[in-house]
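Checklist before submission:
- one chain only
- standard amino acids only
- sequence pasted in full

Submission:
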Amino acid sequence: MGETTQERTEYAEYKVVVNDEEQYSIWPVDRDDPLGWKSVGVSGTKERCLEHIRMVWSDIRPLSVRRRMQERAEGR
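Returned file contents:
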C-alpha cells in the first residue's frame, strides 16, 4: 500500500514535551513547542525520546485526576 497524505512524516530528531497535566509526548525538534506544552530538555531519536518517557512517566493519569483521587483518599 502506498503512502497517503494522511500518513505522518518521520523526523530524524525529536524532543520530549510535557503539559500542565504532566502528560508526555514527543515533538519534532525543529518545531516550536505546541501550545500548552514545554520541552523537558531531552532530544534525540524517536526511540531515545520514547525510552525517556517510559522511564519518567510511570502514572499516565492526568495530574488533576491524581490530585482528586488523593484528596478523596485523604477524606477531603
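Reviewer check: The chain has a mean pLDDT of 87.
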